[in-house]
Write a structure and sequence with these properties.
Order of helices and strands: EHEEEHEEEEEHEH
Largest sheet: 8 strands, antiparallel
Strand content: 25-35%
Number of helices: 4
Length: 180
Amino acid sequence: ADFDKAILADFLGSYMPNSRPEDILTIVTIAYYDHNLQPSAEGKGAKPRYGTSASFRNVMNGPYFDYLANSSAKLEIHLAGPNKEHVLLGTVQVPLQRLTTSGVFGSSLRPSEIEDNYRITLAAGVLDVVKKQLPRGAELGSLRVAMRLRKPIDGAVRDIKQLNQVNDATRMSTGGPPTM
């Protein structure tokens, strides 16, 4: 992560007056599909490196494919407070649609990957404490995120699309609405 030191210092001045951005500890929690939240290791300072890997086992079926095609993974950045309570600093939304296609590299088919810097949107509670006038949607900084599926999903995607076409044809012949 790369936090905006000025915003962080302003927040810390009100919330933890004796703390400096270089000394804080933060964690990231990951909300993905129907799994429990996964926490990262703690990171220190205004440019923490979490070095965390999370793994989620899923069955490639219609609901999961719809989740990948239409949803985002939600990551939350939390400050480890003075009494070990965690305070939400900001959130990151990682759109998952890019994971629904595989890329061909040389002669092997590999799962698609997401690897990018994402903006950290400041949490409302931080905006209320920061002395500067910042608009809703203001950013705390950026977070580097890398995600990939373990295996290519082309075959499963093809099967799901074919099943949806069959279901649509059946619904249309009986007067029902098509699948989205």
